[in-house]
Amino acid sequence: MDPHALMRIKNLQLRSKLVVEGFFGGLHRSPLHGASVEFSEYRSYSPGDDPRGLDWKLFARTDRYYIKKFEDETNRRCHLLVDQSQSMAYGSLEYSKMDYARTLAATLAYFLTLQRDHVGLMTFDEAIADVVPARSRTGHLRQILACLDRPTAGKGTNLNRPLSQIAAVTQRRGLVVLISDMLAPTDELQRSLALLRSRQHEVIVLRVLDPNEVEISVDQSKVLVDMETGRKIQVDPDATRRSYQTAFREHADGLQAICNAVGAAIYTTTTDQPLQDSLSDFVSAHQRRPIAASRAGMLGGVGAGGGGGS
User: Fold this and answer.
1) Can you tell me the distance from the alpha carbon of 185 to that of 104, in angstroms, rounded to the nearest whole number?
2) Are strands 118-124 and 128-135 parallel, antiparallel or unpaired?
3) Which among 165, 217, 252, 309 counts the fewest CB atoms within 10 Å?
4) Which domains does the chain have, with CATH numbers?
5) Which residue has the higher pLDDT, 148 or 41?
6) 275-288 and 12-29 helices cross at what angle (nearest 10)?
7) CB count, 10 Å around CB of 65?
8) What is the pLDDT of residues 130-146, one digit of tens each?
């Protein structure tokens, strides 16, 4: 579904449901279904399979037969960490990065709930805001969606605080998904991610950017205001474009290097791209289950500088 049309839907649960159903629909049409695109929790029904394993609720939604594994085989804990800092409020389209990120988090929560997984949520800016423990009981999804729907007036960004908090309070191995624009200093990011990986957590970073942040469009001299610090910057179009693109690439390369070093997956999307693509990235990353990085790589001091969103 076109994200512009999707974001006009006010109900967050309906948005997430449409994305997931669209993803399942695309999967049915894919000639790779059952090969490189395959869920660990579901597979297509084949003659001879025990019909007691059929997921009739999923059949009612998709009109296709799927065999599900039992809960004790697939039970997994997923922690969604959602950046609600001020830079996420930026948007050159009809909606902001925050709107897109919340919809993406709701989509993942809905998708994982369908698979009987435990899902938790943590929102943050400079500090941790809301925390919803990972559970799978009835009504839990509504609690997560209500939390995501809550208005926020985020400030700066501290990427390390939520990662360290999850590592400290989560004993059981699980999946940690960080949804953020990642426009923040990354000096301690590798150590925080390495701590999670050393405890056998899978880590997936879903980076959400506005198209204007990838290809900056400044056509005349003007004053820009940093959304998180309030700092005003007088910019010249040509000089700013060149220096910005250099800094942006260096920051992106630094993030990729950090994730490679610790064995985390990172995907970047812009807010004009269909959310099904990010859901597909999430499924693909989880299927690969990255191998833990070496101790030297995980505890090394790689870091890349970054600044606040503007």
Assistant:
1) 24
2) antiparallel
3) 217
4) 75-298 (3.40.50.410)
5) 148
6) 70
7) 15
8) 999 999 888 899 999 99
